[in-house]
Write a structure and sequence with these properties.
With 264 residues, this protein is an alpha/beta fold. The chain contains ten helices and seven strands. It has one domain: Rossmann fold (3-Layer(aba) Sandwich). The structure holds NADP nicotinamide-adenine-dinucleotide phosphate (NAP).
Length: 264
């Protein structure tokens, strides 16, 4: 793929953070963007910022996974071909496992794992029939290494990498590209929107997030990986990239470090 002219890209979680920045940068590169998330006002505000005038705001609550297949059919009827799906919407956690209610594990799993797989399945036949397409999913460095205070989040982000790996092998023959993006700490509202063990919103920007990568870099590298049809990329500072790499090479060393790791 050379550019995004005549390409329609559907982005979940487009109202804020990484999804908002992906929308802006993809529109700058000529894409038509379909923006989804729950907050219509915020989606409209992002849409108004985009270069070009054929973008579409398509509000969805992805926790209502049972509504996704019909919503996808309706969208395809409305907009025609969708060439790239970016499963970006997500929520994280700030709690020890021992303090985490099962409803929190289920909520995170529903949004960070089941929603992207339902979205992907809803788009598959459409992409297979056309013989091309890209399915991009924003996982995390927490999908590569299990870190403290994030057991549900790490579980969902690991699970989606496994699902997409399997799917990638199955659908390459149909011309469909599958990309996993694993960002490290990125400066967004993610920790403000994170949930604690009892389901309460965390409401605080933690230091690692405040000092995280700018969304502009994460979006730019994600877009470059789509163009180059990469399978998986880690976008993180040196410390977090090294953690993911070391975990593959010398897991016991990292496991010992993680016992004393300070995570908020
Ligand atoms: N920031 C980081 O440090 C970091 C690191 C690694 C991976 N990630 C991943 O990157 C992705 C984007 O995160 P972010 O940092 O940009 O977070 P963010 O600023 O909190 O944005 C989250 C987005 O998800 C949407 N969303 C939340 N619940 C939703 C629901 N039920 N239905 C539909 N949309 C929903 C939100 O929109 P509405 O409120 O309008 O619904 C918002 O647009 C996530 O998958 C996250 O796990 C982030």
């Amino acid at each position: 793929m050379k550019d995004f002219k005549n390409k329609t890209v559907w982005i979940t979680g487009a109202s804020d953070g990484i999804g908002k920045e992906l929308s802006i940068q993809l529109a700058d590169r000529g894409a038509r963007v379909i923006l989804s998330s729950r907050n219509v006002e915020k989606l409209n505000a992002v849409c108004a910022q985009l270069k070009g005038d054929d973008h579409v705001v398509y509000p969805m609550d992805l926790l209502k996974t049972e509504e996704i297949p019909q919503a996808t059919e309706n969208l395809l009827t409305q907009v025609g071909d969708i060439h790239i799906l970016i499963n970006n919407a997500g929520i994280t956690q700030r709690s020890l496992t021992v303090d985490t209610d099962l409803s929190v594990d289920r909520k995170i799993m529903e949004l960070d794992y089941f929603a992207p797989i339902v979205m992907t399945k809803a788009m598959l036949n459409h992409m297979i029939a056309r013989g091309n397409g890209s399915i991009v999913t924003i996982s995390s460095v927490a999908g590569k290494v299990g870190v403290p205070m994030r057991s549900a989040y790490c579980a969902a982000k690991h699970a989606i990498i496994g699902f997409m790996g399997s799917l990638r092998a199955e659908i390459h023959r149909h011309g469909i590209h599958v990309l996993i993006v694993a960002p490290g700490s990125t400066h967004t509202n993610i920790s403000i929107n994170a949930i604690e063990g009892d389901g309460k919103v965390h409401g605080v920007t933690d230091p690692a997030i405040a000092n995280g990568l700018p969304v502009s870099i994460v979006a730019k590298k994600t877009i470059e990986a789509i163009i180059k049809q990469k399978s998986e990329i880690i976008i993180a500072n040196k410390r977090e990239s090294r953690l993911a790499l070391l975990y593959r090479l010398a897991p016991e060393m990292v496991i010992k470090k993680l016992r004393n790791m300070r995570v908020t």
